[in-house]
Write a structure and sequence with these properties.
Elements: E1 4-10, H1 14-30, E2 34-40, H2 49-55, E3 68-71, H3 79-91, E4 96-99, E5 108-111, H4 113-127, E6 133-137, H5 143-156, E7 168-170, H6 175-186, E8 194-197, H7 200-212, E9 222-224, E10 241-244, H8 246-261, E11 269-272, E12 274-277, H9 288-299, H10 301-322, H11 328-341, E13 350-355, E14 370-378, E15 381-382, E16 387-389, E17 406-414, E18 417-425, H12 434-468, H13 479-495, E19 500-507, H14 510-517, H15 519-536, E20 542-547, E21 550-556, H16 560-581, E22 589-596, H17 604-625
């Protein structure tokens, strides 16, 4: 049986993921191993409602169904996410490895960014005369961040300086957070000699803010980063940073898990070296090759802008398509058509799976035991959807068993309300475009929630319409129901050449019941006759309390004789119900019937008058017998 390895990480770490996952896939391909990658987009270390919606992705899989687990520990922002995975791994004794983060009891593979950051900081101190440094920090409790901060302090100690608490700004690994906090900090503080950033994303954010303020890098202030992301090498100035061999890290991580599966005992931490890459942002010259790479990226910017615009159109077309959908069936059909027609940004194999009660339930804190397929795309064709157990993660697929397959799981939610998840099959590279995929999951989540709201609104409107057309006392249709349902029904019979029938009913001596026995008993009389009508009339007939003690029933009937049988059945059922209820007052009703012949040129009002006249004949007879 093919081995299955689960990988857990955060989707924002684009460059790290690109290299690490490539290494993991290469090693998996050697042994035809399937990769199940569970990623989310939690942002920052706090337990916000949106982060809670993201982090529940890690609780979806039952780890006992996997042969091993790889945790991309440094990418995971929330401490409880790492601790949850650690607890489950150790509880079930699952072969595992954690990358770039030490989880107690689990082998760790990491890179020595300390040495690279120390060497880069020492370089700007010695070669560029830097003394005052502001450190742009990741999360304070993150191990890699702490190591990089220690490297900066140790390098500064050579000139008798150090990073004080007020010299630390918290960008939380984020481009936007770094932009904001630097802008605020510069309002009340002078420029330092350098901003040393714990990663390149924050370094780019710092450079953007400085450029907005017309502060030149490196002429007025130096900026450095870490991780050597691709964008940092395509801007001006090219970032000075620290590079590491993440593809080897991923390859060895998979190999480490496989060795444990084979019974080898692996423990402790394995460290890989890093090295600085000096760039223009610290004042160093760069090679012609790096400059040419930047020029090529500038040439491609126009192409990228066009692709971004097309991608936005793609998302908007999905939004527009589902905006007015009012049923699940319609939503599934529309989504199937959309992705069968255009899935260039997704994959030929795509699943959207929702909690099975997402329509009825306003809030889900977790995935339900049963999931429902909302979209099933295989080889670009939309297939019929069904239900499956959440423990299975996937419905039955037509994916070839040969070779190594990858299944990328991303959460769908509105804040902390869990809707479901999406699965991209054999397109793990999609995670390398975090902004695009974050927006994709957001759009799909909002579209699905909009469908839910539309369906609920339609049901609510239907309920309100039903209430507005229903007589509160008897449960039959009211006068508005007659106008909305009975009249169109009879008109349809006339158009289609079908015989329609109207039966008019009136309670005999209703005033006497009210005057002698009270209006409560009068109401009871109305309800008793209504019950007789409900028990007698065919299910497709429309029964109406027309007003006061008058009732109208309309439906198809082949002849007046058949209508007479219904009248007799009404009388029989009324007598039975009177005995059941042991009424304290006499109760009878008169009935009149008329057959609506489409060949006759009578209006509905005329038929109503004829039925009333037929009823009145029976009423006169009943009164004469009293």
């Amino acid at each position: 049986m093919k081995k299955k390895i689960a990988v857990f990480g955060n989707g924002w770490s684009e460059e790290f993921l690109k290299q690490v996952l490539a290494g993991i896939q290469n090693r998996a391909a050697d042994n035809n191993i399937d990769i199940y990658a569970f990623f989310n987009y939690s942002s920052g270390p706090n337990e916000t409602p949106d982060n809670n919606g993201e982090k529940v992705m890690f609780t979806l899989p039952d780890l006992t169904m996997f042969d091993g687990v790889i945790v991309l520990g440094n990418t995971i922002n929330i401490a409880s996410e790492r601790e949850y995975l650690r607890t489950k791994i150790l509880e079930h004794h699952i072969p595992a490895v954690c990358l770039e983060y030490q989880l107690e009891g689990i082998p760790c593979l990491g890179t020595d960014t300390y040495s690279g950051v120390y060497e880069l900081t020492s370089h700007i101190i010695k070669e560029h005369n830097v003394k005052k440094i502001i450190y742009m920090s990741g999360p304070a409790d993150n191990q890699e961040n702490q190591s990089r901060l220690q490297a900066v302090n140790d390098a500064l100690s050579s000139i008798g300086e150090k990073i004080s608490p007020e010299d630390i700004l918290y960008g939380q690994w984020s481009y936007y957070d770094a932009m904001t906090c630097v802008e605020q900090w510069l309002k009340t503080n002078p420029l330092p000699d350098a901003f040393v950033c714990a990663n390149d994303e924050m370094a780019l954010g710092v450079c953007t803010t400085l450029d907005n303020l017309n502060i030149r890098v490196p002429e007025q202030v130096i900026v450095t980063g870490c991780d050597c992301i691709d964008l940092g090498q395509k801007i001006y100035p090219i970032l000075s940073t620290v590079a590491r061999s993440c593809d080897k890290l991923g390859y060895d991580a998979m190999d480490c898990v496989l060795r444990q599966i084979d019974g080898e005992q692996v423990a402790g931490t394995t460290i890989y070296n890093t090295s600085p890459m000096y760039g223009e942002s610290c004042g160093c010259k760069v090679s012609d090759e790096r400059i040419q790479n930047r020029r090529r990226s500038i040439i491609n910017q126009h192409k990228q802008q066009k692709e971004n615009t097309i991608y936005e159109w793609h998302l908007r077309s999905i939004d527009d398509m589902l905006a007015k959908v009012t049923s699940i069936r319609e939503a599934k059909e529309h989504l199937g058509w959309q992705f069968a027609y255009s899935h260039n940004y997704e994959s030929e194999h795509l699943l959207i799976c929702l909690v099975d009660t997402f329509i009825e339930n306003d809030f889900h804190e977790d995935f339900t035991p049963e999931m429902e397929e909302y979209l099933h795309l295989e080889f670009g064709q939309s297939l019929p959807c069904g239900s499956f157990s959440a423990k299975e993660l996937l419905p039955k697929l037509s994916i070839p068993e040969d070779g190594s397959n990858t299944f990328l799981f991303l959460p769908l939610h509105i804040t902390d309300n869990i809707l479901g998840y999406v699965v991209f099959i054999n397109r793990l590279d999609i995670i390398f475009h975090p902004d695009a995929m974050y927006m994709w999951t957001r759009h799909i989540s909002q579209d699905i929630d909009r469908v839910r709201q539309n369906v609920r609104m339609k049901e609510l409107n239907k309920m309100l319409t039903e209430i507005s057309m229903t007589d509160a006392l008897t449960g039959l249709k009211n006068r508005a129901g007659y106008d909305s349902l009975a009249v169109p029904y009879l008109q349809k019979c006339q158009r289609e050449g079908k015989l329609g029938t109207m039966i008019f009913a009136d309670i005999n001596r209703m005033k006497l019941i009210n005057d002698k026995y009270g209006h409560l008993q009068g109401d009871y009389a109305l309800c008793t006759v209504a019950e007789a009508i409900k028990r007698t009339m065919p299910s497709d007939w429309i029964a109406v309390r027309f007003g006061g003690d008058e009732f109208i029933m309309v439906g198809e009937c082949s002849s007046l004789e058949e209508a007479e049988h219904l009248k007799q059945a009404l009388s029989v059922n009324l007598n039975l119900i009177k005995k059941e209820r042991d009424l304290c007052f006499p109760l009878t009703a008169s009935f009149g019937a008329v057959v609506m012949n489409p060949d006759e040129n009578y209006s509905l009002e005329e038929y109503l008058r004829k039925a009333d006249e037929a009823m009145y004949v029976m009423k006169q007879k009943a009164h004469a017998e009293d």
